[in-house]
Design goal:
heterodimer, A: 158 residues, alpha+beta, Ubiquitin-like (UB roll), 2 domains, five-stranded mixed β-sheet, 16% strand, globular, B: 291 residues, Uridine Diphospho-n-acetylenolpyruvylglucosamine Reductase, domain 3, Enolase-like, domain 1, 3 domains, five-stranded antiparallel β-sheet, 12 helices, 35% helix, binds flavin-adenine dinucleotide, binds FE2/S2 (inorganic) cluster
């Protein structure tokens, strides 16, 4: 039986150490071991984006990354998106535009949209739709999500 | 997932010794977008060997003499984000920027796309028409294999046990050259190619005659195919020679040996091989004219 591996990483700005089996995905470590259950599991094979997290500023599907790969990385999960001052503009705009119904896709959409807005301050609608193509939503029909991201982008540009 | 060990070697030599040290089934990890999904579906390994700490496997560099070197574990987004790739290798932007989603492009690699060896993989046609070479490390040192000779069947490549792909070397584009890749899928993103194709051309200094041409097609045979007859049909011909372009398309249709599946039928895929070959050639000529 292979042993557990000691991993040191940064999650939402704090240094975190954990022990994990090499076969555990970072999604399992976040949810089951570190109680960071905001990151959701949908398909578990890279198709739905519900498990999106940022690793060194890049959005990835945490169901397709191993926990051991987190060594030395900087991870941001949905729990790290709001600041002490309050909700992130994306979170605020998702509420205002009713860009969620059941909500299971929402953490993934917000994390992916944050990756986009961190790089591009004024993305076109087409660009937003393409960037978010790896995030699936069963409920909203996407329009409200796209509006919320556009609105958050304008607010952040002010 | 079954239990396995994990190692992240720091050098090619260390990786080779881990691959040959009786470690059982080794699963080589680049971005994991194929491997981890396969492990969840029951693929069994004893050791996961992560290549991302090996400098040669993550390097991405360009040199006018030797060309572009793409470490096998370099992510698609690093590749299409590299300014030299954007300015001199647009066909590599074409293919790496349409793999899966942003999430997949931030993890998935060209090396993984090659080694997974799906017949429908999106990076091989462009890498092949650019005249690239796969650099493979093994117990007996390094060897090089032309990109078009890398694939031997669905999920199979020339890699022997104990070997791994270190990098892909793409020559510096010739003057007055251009290359283009495209695929056909029923939607805009997040799907697997029904068929795909790439072409590269080198024009004369007037940019009116084709001096060299290569065409490769994918998802229409057990492996990606370099269609030598399609390239040959174009050599020496004017860039607007419709008959020559039609001859190249006919060569692609003749080379295609597709299957029917949920994504497309044999007839549709043969037809698409011709259509995509035409568009790839036209795109390559256009880029060569603009170069
Ligand atoms: C949602 C989704 C969408 C996708 N869309 C596309 C698409 O549009 N087009 C497309 O072509 N593919 C697509 N793929 C497949 C996959 O993302 C690509 O094949 C990707 O390029 C694989 O790279 P990787 O680094 O993730 O490979 P990995 O999963 O790390 O490796 C793939 C295989 O190759 C082996 N391997 C990896 N690197 C090496 C090496 N250097 N030497 C020897 N063996 C090695 C691994 O052991 C494994 O068997 C998609 C996958 C998902 C999950
Ligand atoms: S749960 Fe990871 S992409 Fe769906
Ligand atoms: S709100 Fe239900 S899946 Fe998106």
């Amino acid at each position: 039986m292979p042993g557990k591996v000691h991993v040191t990483t940064t999650i939402n700005g704090e240094s975190v150490e954990f022990l994990c089996e090499p076969r555990q995905t970072i999604l399992e470590v976040l949810r089951d071991q570190l109680d960071l259950t905001g990151t959701k599991e949908g398909c578990s094979n890279g198709n739905c984006g519900a498990c999106s997290i940022l690793v060194d500023g890049e959005v990835i599907d945490s169901c397709l990354m191993m926990g051991v790969e987190a060594e030395g990385q900087e991870i941001i999960t949905i729990e790290g998106v709001a600041s002490a001052d309050g909700l992130h503009p994306l979170q605020q705009k998702f509420l205002e535009h009713a860009a969620l119904q059941c909500g299971i896709c929402t953490p993934g959409f917000i994390v992916a949209a944050k990756a986009l807005l961190d790089q591009e301050s004024d993305p076109s609608e087409e660009r937003i739709r393409l960037y978010l193509a790896g995030n699936l939503c069963r409920c909203t029909g996407y329009d409200k999500i796209v509006r919320a991201v556009q609105d958050a982008a304008s607010e952040m540009a002010e | 997932m079954n239990a396995f060990d994990y190692e992240a070697p720091q050098s090619v030599d260390e990786a080779i010794s881990l691959l040959s040290a009786g470690n059982g089934n080794v699963g080589i990890l680049a971005g994991g977008t194929d491997l981890i999904a396969q492990l969840k579906e029951g693929r069994k390994i004893d050791l996961m060997l992560d290549l991302k700490q090996i400098p040669e496997a993550t390097a991405l560099s360009f040199d006018e003499d030797s060309g572009l070197s793409i470490g096998a574990a370099t992510s698609c987004s690093k590749i299409y984000g590299y300014d030299v790739v954007q300015s001199r290798y647009p066909a590599l932007v074409d293919c790496t920027s349409l793999i899966g989603s942003i999430q997949i492009q931030n993890r998935g690699t060209v090396g993984g796309n090659f080694c997974n060896a799906s017949p429908a993989a999106d990076t091989p046609p462009a890498v092949i028409v650019l005249g690239s070479t796969c650099r493979i490390a093994g117990p007996n040192g390094m060897r090089e294999v032309a990109a078009e000779d890398f694939f031997t069947g669905p999920g199979q490549s020339v890699l022997q046990s104990g070997e791994f792909l270190v990098s892909i070397q793409v020559p510096t584009p010739a003057a007055n050259s251009g290359a283009f890749f495209l695929r056909f899928i029923p939607r805009n993103e997040m799907d697997i190619a029904v068929a795909n194709a790439a072409a590269s051309v080198v024009l004369d200094s007037e940019k009116t005659t084709i001096q060299e041409a290569r065409v490769a097609i994918g998802a229409v045979a057990p492996t990606p195919l370099l269609v030598a007859d399609a390239g040959a049909a174009l050599v020496g011909k004017a860039v607007d020679d419709e008959d020559a372009i039609e001859a190249a398309c006919a060569a692609s249709r003749a080379a295609a040996r597709p299957i029917s599946d949920m994504r497309g039928t044999i007839e549709q895929r043969i037809h698409l091989s011709g259509v995509l070959t035409r568009r790839a050639i036209q795109g390559a000529i256009q880029r060569a004219k603009e170069s």
